[in-house]
């Protein structure tokens, strides 16, 4: 049995899930604790493991519980999966009991992942999730590009002075690049701040700002042929799933969430071959 405690929100939990899918032994069961964002995004993933959410009163004790489990692992009573220094590989150590804890970090490295289950579930759930948006007339025969604008916590991440939220000028420049390469392209803008997105893009004829929930936004982005990414795991997964089926073009800021800080964040392994990286001036 392989047990994982959630890290971050939906995009980060997808990385954890895909890394666990790759290292699971035959007939081994995965147990996911507090992965609510993951199953809210793709409910069908709930069939590929045991999912439990701790009662609200227990959540404040989670760090203590995890420290106790690490002590058990140190004495090899239980096993553990660990991220090697540098973040490029995972190692697994077995314990006396048939329980292994997953402490593999963020797993934002394409080489650590088995994405097949996530891709299968996303395809199966896309049409029901998107039907409410009624985008048939704006679908442009598939010649569409998502633009993901993440603000919210990114306005102060990784710090207040080095925000990872992208400037509008960079986004507009990338849209111009796509227009030149793919004439007649239509853009769908998805954001956690639809008021801001509408203010920025409402005057642009080939752009539609889509105000919807996270699940619908994720499926819509995954069904687009091309994408302009925020340095967000949510963006990355939508682009990855689209690229697997369509092989479109995707662009993101060079240095990812560290574009404003001078180094790759979370680390250089987040860099992916299917994405083109452009410097933010």
Give an account of the 3D structure:
By secondary structure, the chain is of the alpha/beta class. Helices cover about 35% and strands about 15% of the residues. It has nine helices and twelve strands. The strands form two sheets. The protein has a six-stranded mixed sheet with strand order 3-2-1-6-4-5, covered by helices on one side.
Helix content: 25-40%
Distance between the termini: 48 Å
Helix-strand topology string: EHEHEHHEEEHEHEHEHEHEE
Q: Report the major sheet.
A: 6 strands, mixed
Whole-number average pLDDT?
93
Q: What portion of the residues fall into strands of 2 or more residues?
A: 15-25%
Radius of gyration: 20 Å
Biggest sheet, spatial arrangement of strands: 3-2-1-6-4-5
Q: How many individual β-strands?
A: 12
Counting helices, strands and paired strands, the structural category is alpha/beta
Count, helices: 9
Uncertain residue segments: none
Shape: globular
């Amino acid at each position: 049995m392989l047990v994982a405690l959630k890290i971050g929100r939906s995009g980060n939990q997808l990385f954890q899930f895909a890394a666990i899918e790759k290292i699971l032994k035959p007939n081994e069961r995965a147990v996911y604790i507090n992965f609510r964002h993951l199953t809210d995004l793709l409910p069908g993933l709930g069939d590929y493991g045991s999912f439990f959410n701790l009662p609200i009163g227990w959540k404040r004790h989670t760090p203590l519980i995890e420290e106790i489990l690490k002590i058990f692992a140190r004495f090899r009573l239980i096993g553990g999966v660990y991220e090697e220094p540098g973040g490029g590989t995972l190692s697994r150590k077995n314990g006396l009991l048939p329980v292994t804890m997953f402490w593999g970090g963020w797993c934002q490295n394409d080489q650590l992942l088995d994405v097949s289950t996530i891709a299968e579930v996303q395809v199966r759930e896309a049409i029901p999730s998107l039907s409410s948006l009624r985008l048939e007339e704006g679908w442009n025969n598939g010649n569409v590009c998502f633009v993901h604008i993440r603000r919210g916590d990114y306005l102060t991440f990784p710090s207040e002075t080095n925000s990872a939220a992208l400037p509008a000028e960079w986004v507009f420049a990338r849209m111009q690049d796509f227009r030149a390469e793919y004439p007649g392209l239509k853009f769908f803008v998805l954001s956690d701040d639809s008021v801001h997105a509408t203010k920025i893009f409402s005057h642009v004829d080939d752009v539609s700002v889509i105000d919807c929930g996270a699940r619908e936004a994720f499926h819509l982005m995954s069904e687009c042929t091309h994408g302009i990414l925020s340095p967000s795991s949510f963006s990355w997964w939508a682009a990855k799933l689209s690229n697997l089926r369509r092989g479109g073009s995707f662009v993101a800021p060079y240095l990812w969430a560290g574009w404003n800080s001078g180094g790759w964040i979370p680390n250089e392994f987040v860099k992916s071959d299917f994405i083109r990286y452009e410097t933010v001036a």
